[in-house]
Queue: 3 jobs
Job 1
Amino acid sequence: MKSGGLLTTLPDRVVDAIRSAIGSGPSVLHEPTFSGNEWLYLKECLDSTFVSSVGKFVDRFEDDLARFTGVKHAVAVVNGTAALHIALKLAGVKADDEVMIPALTFVATANAVTYCGATPHLVDSEVRTLGIDADKLRDYLREHTEQRAGQCVNRATGRVIRAVIPMHTFGHPVDLDGLLAAAHDYNIAVVEDAAESLGSYYHGRHTGTFGLMGTLSFNGNKTITTGGGGAILTDDAALARHAKHLTTTAKLPHAWEYRHDEIGYNYRLPNLNAALGCAQLEQLPALLASKRKLFERYQAAFAPVVGVRMVAEPEACRSNYWLQTLLLAAGQESQRDLVLKATNAAGFMTRPAWVLMHELAHFKDCPCMDLAVAESLSRRLINLPSSAGLAPVAL
Amino acid sequence: MKSGGLLTTLPDRVVDAIRSAIGSGPSVLHEPTFSGNEWLYLKECLDSTFVSSVGKFVDRFEDDLARFTGVKHAVAVVNGTAALHIALKLAGVKADDEVMIPALTFVATANAVTYCGATPHLVDSEVRTLGIDADKLRDYLREHTEQRAGQCVNRATGRVIRAVIPMHTFGHPVDLDGLLAAAHDYNIAVVEDAAESLGSYYHGRHTGTFGLMGTLSFNGNKTITTGGGGAILTDDAALARHAKHLTTTAKLPHAWEYRHDEIGYNYRLPNLNAALGCAQLEQLPALLASKRKLFERYQAAFAPVVGVRMVAEPEACRSNYWLQTLLLAAGQESQRDLVLKATNAAGFMTRPAWVLMHELAHFKDCPCMDLAVAESLSRRLINLPSSAGLAPVAL
């Protein structure tokens, strides 16, 4: 064990700490665990011939998701991006609106805004949660917007800021109290991007259930997977009905007639993928326990390593620890790519945070506030191998 | 057997003919057949843990599709609507363009046009193919458009007509020679909507391979299914590369960096669904043989029934007979709903053609030509139970 030793480099110490936490590898960033009824349900689905947009597993997956998250309605869709697209449409986002999103997010958050014809408006993060800094957002809204006919208007562009999308980065809940209050005071709808935070709780309540709507993702790299999949969460029955309508081509119910009453989407989750989801959801408590155990191992392994620390769940929150995340100390930015190289070379798949949205050529002209914290974080964050299988727990 | 009898009503005779062709029912409109390696490949997919956007079945499914259709490149996506959306974008369709589509089509064709910010421009059908009437289209283009800087401009709206989408209705190939010539002469890109015509050939060549790009669908009601799925077909390597890039969030290849160079989409077919597709594609020749045998049975059963006929493949074409289709004789329009009621009441799931696009409230103001034939067809077409399992063939 060389961790903490002064004669080794930081990248070497990181590699050693990872090895002491999870063994010698190789380890990918995140792979799913199929140890329950996955095969049984897939087979049942195939035997029923109901593999597509209608079937008992889609309905059950929605019921199971609603029960797990404590929300009244869940609508299953093909992926998290589709969920966000429809949630934004239902929040009233239209062409030439602006939608506030963190600069530090996966590109799907920004893409979904553009699918509505709207423009992302980029917001800074706070170090504590990695998510939107609600105080900074409130100050910014006070200085840069005005209320016109009950709408929040960006004074610089003249466009309506229709919604804000807090994203729970790597599974860590954002400051929802602060954010909801600011959004309320400035008449901005809240759509939570909980793609990464299934199993994460803010003050005891599941993330994705605080805003007007929340969205989940079940991509292959998520805590549970349906191959590809997502869901919209809401307590509002009318919104849930409309979400289901829009995601199933807006077809009106009829024994044989094919009539649609608005522009709809082919976004329904296939029953085959929902079957996998039902089995995965049964495993979720064990998967969450594994990910917490894995965090504790990393936490212990990195405690003696000077210059880095593990990102832990915010106070009064419970994170799902979807992606285990290392934060380099301020001043250590130059070590990031060296650590990425050393760890990947050692067989431990690691990656930095996403390139910030305003650093992508096609989003560089989006309106934004000062993004100093997001910029600093993006140069210091490193995701570590995070699969639940690295620290198995049987419940 | 009462078929052809003068004392019974047309709806009764239709029910009798269906019963003599496929037995006593009940029969749904279309259900998939899983009789090959479906289980095996799904299990293999699960065991590999590669169920999501990366995996060997996605690559294999694309190769198999390209080989089967005789095209150079196939790009697998989440569904036929997504395939059409991306193909239109790559054909250069932009906001405020117009795209010509048949009025007689499933709503996805029109929806995909709107996702590009463009407007559907509705075209009439011919009785022979049920698809776009190429001669009528050519006459219309001559009268109503002009060429400006090499673009076809709708004189009435001033908008560019960027593309035309021939759709091979229920699997019957449209008049591609006439259509391609007209599109060529008027500088309009051709994107084939071959969602319904996997296994259908025009003059010996597979549908979906004639235009700049073609699109397929593997929804649960199609000839083969992946639960939900679709594909883009093209001979152009650069278009295929761009299609794959756009459908995988436009992420640039890199060992760890998440950088995207344009607005992308989360449209990749999951490996789980592709595994099902690989197994289904192996069964396709047998499924096509079954559907042809089923057509012949219906053809024989309906031959003596006055006032209706089965829609047969156009000359020099080979249809997949995806949906078996009855056409009421002109003058028998009032029988349609009576036939639908009688057949559904007898346990045979039947349905009319889709409500025409200009009869949907949100598309009623789209530009259109005279649509007399489509209107007549839509009042006379009835789809019959069409599952391959109704006439099993083992090859």
Job 2
Amino acid sequence: MLSSSSSLAALLGTEFPLVQAPMAGVQGSRLAIAVSGAGALGSLPCAMLSTEAMRSELAALRDALGERPYNVNFFCHQAPVPDAAREAAWREALAPFLREFGIDPAAIPAGPGRNPFSTEAAEVLAEFRPRVVSFHFGLPAPDLLARVKAWGAVVLASATTVEEGLWLQAHGADAVIAQGLEAGGHRGHFLSHDLTRQPGLFALLPQLVAQLRVPVIAAGGIADAQGVAAAMALGAAGVQVGTAWLLCDEATTTPLHRAALKSEAARHTALTNLFTGRAARGIVNRLLREAGPMSAAAPEFPLATAAIAPLRAKAEAQGSGDFSPLWSGQNATGCREVPAAELVRALVRGFGRAG
Amino acid sequence: MLSSSSSLAALLGTEFPLVQAPMAGVQGSRLAIAVSGAGALGSLPCAMLSTEAMRSELAALRDALGERPYNVNFFCHQAPVPDAAREAAWREALAPFLREFGIDPAAIPAGPGRNPFSTEAAEVLAEFRPRVVSFHFGLPAPDLLARVKAWGAVVLASATTVEEGLWLQAHGADAVIAQGLEAGGHRGHFLSHDLTRQPGLFALLPQLVAQLRVPVIAAGGIADAQGVAAAMALGAAGVQVGTAWLLCDEATTTPLHRAALKSEAARHTALTNLFTGRAARGIVNRLLREAGPMSAAAPEFPLATAAIAPLRAKAEAQGSGDFSPLWSGQNATGCREVPAAELVRALVRGFGRAG
């Protein structure tokens, strides 16, 4: 174990083989800086950033971290073609909620949603040459991936099945993140949308370790040093932790989201496509209960977001998280209201226990 | 860890805190005898045994093991009231398959299904006074449970959520099995049938360990010594392993089922209610693909079995597992064609690595 985790840390350029999962919407450069500053790998999620915002965040990372490594994360879905009939069906499905809040379905603007990795993003990235770049939903097209590799970036990508791990290794990933079903936020699946194919981490991790040559980073349900040690015992080269950071001072998690994470409600999460059109794990709230967590009416990712946005805004203005995406993994017990560096120190104790 | 696992072994009366998961339909006393003989806890599943068969199997265990402990397992569902309309709808849903095999839906006999724990079973059990008795789907009624406790039996039961673990502890379980979503065969859930509530083992196990006073036994996706070590790192007092035994010489797994477990098909399992009416994990085969793994038409557990039985028999006679329940957890990589005692020796190496 020791050699495997040491070699991943060497690959990432970090002191510890610990990655802070990129979490669009609940963190920016501030959390990444704190985590990287403490010897782990902080991550900047770019899916919801404009090119300008991205440049500004990357400058903040560079200025704060100097030569210390950080990770920049992108989604790489195919941008969808809007479908008026599907959009109308979606607004119809949400009509009772929209009516309740006095929202005119015809007046909802198209939302910005989430952007896939693009030539423009690659150009901005090239100005900063981050040590690590990670992708979700597969990998970008070969020419775009080549741009990132041109400055020697280490490429990470998420696999939710053995097949996806083999695909990512064959297509240029330098390390693969084993995303167990326990993980919060968007599932990274890209070869099949059949959710029954996605195993829990206890099953996925050892199978990926056995099948891949590249290092495997464990993700999903890891909340403390014991979880880190368990992942290392299963052969991981390192771990990625997400949910546990959500209460850290440097995260931008909303007060409503923080309250949900601290409550017993956090014991019940579900995969839902209601917020974006793709399956993502969050705490079950009123929208998930009443609409059912998975809806066939939801438009393609990320178009479902637009019609939810005004509902969310109106409910949040009333102090309610009923229509908010309360992203969380299945184990929120590691969330701590501490500076992120303290959480890094607590988590990395788990590396000492394995091997 | 060491003291926790030692104390579970002391509670069970075994050398190792390793439980062979009871697996109705694929094993009987022979596997249990081999496992208990090697210092772990073998289990006899009784859900599909008549009172007479149970007595005969228990006699075999007693004669072979003497004072060595073994576990006897029961389901404790409410026996369902047959519903003619629902049964008709179920046969209608299966009509294309029944036609293909020339089976007259009207001529299908009611199946024996699976029996819940009963006064009669408790009487047979009292003759043998097994050291350990385990239950699935909750616990039997208090008076029935009291009969089992009367001779000092250690009572185990499965929890799929934190809430179920707390309930089992409050109602008399001496240790709780944390059944992660990865596990093969029937899910043990009993407080809620909402499958989104059921976490993977990485999330479930540490939460149960944190919340319960009684020892927690980890189950689901554990296939080898590394899996055992990982579970112990997460705070388990011991582990229960199921799928890994299915290729052992002493298991009664059919050749079709064995072949599926050894193939790449075993990488894709799903929860299905088609075979019994309750969610159970098995390898995806033609029936699951074509009917969808979860059907609203399936009658209440275990009544769905009757209409599937002739399909399964006809297909198996043709050498096909298309309609067979190919139970498996999400990690079949630990299956080995060895005597069960050899698998015990391999798995218990994992205890040495933790703590």
Job 3
Amino acid sequence: MKVIKDSVHDHIQIDGVARDLLDTPELQRLRRINQLGTVSLVYPSANHTRFEHSLGVYHLACEALEGLGVEGKRADRVEAAALLHDVGHGPFSHNLEALTHRRTGRYHDDVHDLLADGEVGAVLRDHDLEPETIADLVAGEGRFGQIVSGELDVDRMDYLVRDAHHTGVPYGTIDHGRLVRELTFVDGELALAEGNVQSAESLLVARALMNPTVYSHSVARISKAMLRRATERLLESTDVDAHTLQRMDDADLIARLRSTEETTEFSRRLDHRDLFKRAVWAEIDDVPGGIIESDHETIREFEREIATDAGVDPECVILDVPRRPSMTESTSRVVVNGDVRRLEQQSPLVGALRAAQYSQWRLGVYSPPGMLEAVGRSAVSVLGLDIDGALVSEVRDGLDATLDQFLE
Amino acid sequence: MKVIKDSVHDHIQIDGVARDLLDTPELQRLRRINQLGTVSLVYPSANHTRFEHSLGVYHLACEALEGLGVEGKRADRVEAAALLHDVGHGPFSHNLEALTHRRTGRYHDDVHDLLADGEVGAVLRDHDLEPETIADLVAGEGRFGQIVSGELDVDRMDYLVRDAHHTGVPYGTIDHGRLVRELTFVDGELALAEGNVQSAESLLVARALMNPTVYSHSVARISKAMLRRATERLLESTDVDAHTLQRMDDADLIARLRSTEETTEFSRRLDHRDLFKRAVWAEIDDVPGGIIESDHETIREFEREIATDAGVDPECVILDVPRRPSMTESTSRVVVNGDVRRLEQQSPLVGALRAAQYSQWRLGVYSPPGMLEAVGRSAVSVLGLDIDGALVSEVRDGLDATLDQFLE
Amino acid sequence: MKVIKDSVHDHIQIDGVARDLLDTPELQRLRRINQLGTVSLVYPSANHTRFEHSLGVYHLACEALEGLGVEGKRADRVEAAALLHDVGHGPFSHNLEALTHRRTGRYHDDVHDLLADGEVGAVLRDHDLEPETIADLVAGEGRFGQIVSGELDVDRMDYLVRDAHHTGVPYGTIDHGRLVRELTFVDGELALAEGNVQSAESLLVARALMNPTVYSHSVARISKAMLRRATERLLESTDVDAHTLQRMDDADLIARLRSTEETTEFSRRLDHRDLFKRAVWAEIDDVPGGIIESDHETIREFEREIATDAGVDPECVILDVPRRPSMTESTSRVVVNGDVRRLEQQSPLVGALRAAQYSQWRLGVYSPPGMLEAVGRSAVSVLGLDIDGALVSEVRDGLDATLDQFLE
Amino acid sequence: MKVIKDSVHDHIQIDGVARDLLDTPELQRLRRINQLGTVSLVYPSANHTRFEHSLGVYHLACEALEGLGVEGKRADRVEAAALLHDVGHGPFSHNLEALTHRRTGRYHDDVHDLLADGEVGAVLRDHDLEPETIADLVAGEGRFGQIVSGELDVDRMDYLVRDAHHTGVPYGTIDHGRLVRELTFVDGELALAEGNVQSAESLLVARALMNPTVYSHSVARISKAMLRRATERLLESTDVDAHTLQRMDDADLIARLRSTEETTEFSRRLDHRDLFKRAVWAEIDDVPGGIIESDHETIREFEREIATDAGVDPECVILDVPRRPSMTESTSRVVVNGDVRRLEQQSPLVGALRAAQYSQWRLGVYSPPGMLEAVGRSAVSVLGLDIDGALVSEVRDGLDATLDQFLE
């Protein structure tokens, strides 16, 4: 048995198949992938990696399994899946997910291959575990898959606490010890035992508060959009394909972006934190509904149109349209007076937090500081935005007389 | 300048009038008053005192004043008020508040006297501060009183974090550093500066989650009700009056309860944690509306009636009817797009949390373990409760055939 | 199984005999005994109790037993002993230990009685455990007794971390998780496994740094000496005997001291933190060796002599002579290259810390602020102190010309 | 003023020249340099960077300056120096220091150039600060330079606490708040005020315990030695020179090591954590004294000789000879009874910790797992080691009969 010191869970004991998986190149790669990607440009201490998070998820899975009385081969499978659940992540974690998924097709297939091949596959087979089954657990399939990926999964419990610890933002401090201990199976579905409505709510609230403060902080979104744009250029202008990209770590990608002519400017901006700023920051309600359903190509079309209208280089306009807010935790199961209920049936908080999320749902148009006014004006016109409220304060505060007139 | 080590804020620097107030008997008494009263019977680590909390409130007040640019005599007054804000608390803090206020009349007058008399008054006058003005600040009056007592007061910021630290329940971990720094005055009203809707929400959420988990935990409520009952008996059967009670510390009251024949049994039960249990735990909706507005006498009448009906000693029935839930934080002011808004106008969370609070609002009837069934049955009948849902699971689980029939 | 939330170890699961012991009056009494006695007059947040500490010791004992592979009845015994280890403590914990032991004889016999009688005895027998055996374990006897009381006991591990957490002084933050996990038995003796010399040193260092900063802080020593003196008067002037005292909790003793004429002045001083100050603070080297070995009567004789010489009331002079410094941890066993060695054989730190402890070993003479000079002068003369270095700075700084001459 | 959230100091307020320096490429580069280099291969959470550390040092410098009453231009200079103090660090922080210094000459000159040139120079001059002066402060020169670099510098205070926080090893938790506040100047020398011998000792002890547990952990040393070897090869086989190396960040170096044929194998080993192991781990006393003073060339000569003797590729032998242990903190100044003393004159701990450090001083010979025995044997012979105690347990445990004979 190996004991690893962790800044969140203190000591993590690792044993059996997990112990052997630890030494595979696939898992070691996660040491070099930041957990929160560009969020570290907002919170400088947020340099934790997918590797330590994977250890944390494994640790909480072990505790959950013990509480649920799951042992033997069954537990081994869940533990392996917990440790491996992020092994398919590309560089900068979720930052480039949309990009690589668009280009490589389903993420799930990719994880299947990753677990079947290479050293991970060999270790799994050595321990008489079928890679296919582990991949299904990673995808949250089946009774036990819910522990790894689902409304009450240990992934969420670890990342909330870990991200809070490393950013210094206290909102993610849930009572993971209690949550893990109170997990139970009712009719094959994972639920929180009687008396845990508040615990379930606290999980929901933690994510609802971490979202705008950390995960969707405007500067994190801007830098992520810049990174995504740069990486698209890399894929278009070099022999790097989406599959290769997916297997890189952060250092690989940084190095390629620096050394590729087409991406060197974005790379410099990211390195020096010389970022684009918001030309437009609009509630999505203001936006013609169609844009959300738009495919990637439509969005690029909008960007080009805005750039043309504003008379600037197309590389200077980024249109950032986040997906419709979702709230997985709202369907968490909780036992109330002996019955299993979905949290959203039970808690008035669910609806309120969903409403809050929608009210924070913003479309952004970003460009270099010098062109904010021109780009903002064009974007309002091209996207047909309701002008009132659409331009962010950075622009508004610096409005010259002309724009003031324009806005009136 | 004196530096005091605090387990929450690390180092607290204390100076000027506050430094001198620290040595007064009135403030030193707070060392012997538990911050959370009987909550320590649920959370054994929750033994922090009003004294350390007062230091914490003073510390946050100093930070707030610095951020607001308030200096000199004006700052001295607020600092004194912050340090003294709990000086009027009787033993077991809020546990006996209702009792003493009922008997002594307005709390406010009492604080006025306390600050004007004795060593506190002498110290204040030595520093050219008028006790009357400080008492007004303690009561939250005037522009600067809001810092000490109001929707965004530093009292709340300290107790949430401190209670979380000492109970081990993480829900109270707000970002007090940010909150204090973002305070601003708009048209004489204390508000959070632009961009702090989430900060305001986090404060609200913290209290909403701490409430059922800590402050209104059923065992804390039961033991508090027992302590209140015992103290009433003490006032009735000895020469201790409400005013004397108010000046006691926890040790005084414990000793008197132990040595008074009429209260020795309650005292033993509290000492040995041999507590009453819930015979009824009913949503207040189930209850004839009138009971909430009932005065103390009506409630005692109900208790006696239930006891008679159940054939038990009246001392074995406690009816606990909490006040209508309130949510001070819902009217916090936040600057949004340049305008000051009340949080409830801005955040869908306010309504949801208020609804959640109402749904957790419970009336309790408590009695010794051996008589739960009889007392529960009588209480349902006397109070005219809707039977369904009114009896708590402890009773229900142990129901004999008779009661099962009764419930059907 | 019951789960208790603890501010240090987060969740403590308690089961079996320990679960039942929890509800005994003997254990519940520990809720009302401060862990650090008068230390809270120096560190206002240090209000933790023997009860939460007992839970922590139980928790670490469970972890140690699991690591050592001890199960069944054997483990039950150690767990019971861990939970009960402080059940014999009187009010204010160690503060009055010397006093009660002097008067009641051996502490050990007392614990034997406590565990055999009352509800604790009944619970133990219900679980087929012999009170006698548990009392031996509490005394550190036998192979497994070392876990509860010995150089590497879990008592020490809990109190260092807990006292650090509650005082805010970081020096006690040892790696208890590692220490507990690395415990092993070699030839029936408890030792730390190979590779843990630093771990053992860290335990030693933690206590060496906590000692002067917390446990023997001069203000804690003064207030403890005042409490001891008051309690002696109580025993002399009332029907309270040492045995009754030993069964009191803090509230009992506070109340008795307040209501007894002979002790009311000391009580007032402690309540208002209006403490004696140091008239003399002398390295013990300066002191005629004999004083250390002196019995209690000799010390009282000295006090009277000083008071007479200074012309003050004998109640105004306290002579505080701490015992010769000891360092239990210096004999901790550690496995080094396969052999068990005592830490003092292995680590140069042991000697250095011992030397440091001796250099901090101070005799104090305390009296009310107004008489420091007179009492200090008399004490120097009566005790035959080397004048240079004997008077504390408080006195020295306020020296008038006369005393300056005297000192020259 | 900008406020940055930090996981250690919570909120850091940054203003004036520091605020402007923050946006320079030179400082932003530190975001991509791990604070502890290869230590993250031992402690997976230790991914904090020189950037957040620099912010922390700046923060503590501000607090120290406030306490010392230093203001205006003088304070600006020290604050700038604090923020910039690590700007000269190359990739992997101290890991490659010896290497780059050997090749670039004096580090100090380099910092002078760095501060005078580029955007940092421009910002400094904009604020009327002379780069030369700031570089002197970074080097610890002059009265105020001691705050930035010296026995009691804020650099040390930040890194101990930060490294403890991120590794999870508690030994570094010093009371930095107290240390910073107690700094004072006596005759132009920085010292801790009266009553702080323990504070000074705690700083010393913290580093003494962090050293073997974190900074010089054997796996951290091995991986560091491998990285150093790889980087030497890079410098020999490519156009990268020491100066270019010094300006790289971690990602740059990782990418170059991966893409250079001569270093790809070391790079793979580091990426996959497939590390060399200890063939020899000898107390330096066992070693011919001369080796310590040996220059780099002599050590390489030894390595080649061992490889030849063992019949293995020279790339498979690394001889790691750490410098003679030093203990800067031993000369910290503390005021004792009004006089300034060096800590080593005052505290018996200094000598003991120095002795402990010497007893932990080890020479290592590392090689791939398959050749440990052969390399170990040759190293013992080539270096003329005292055999007893020289071979590490990994080797010893796997000894075949031959080696057993050899050892006898």
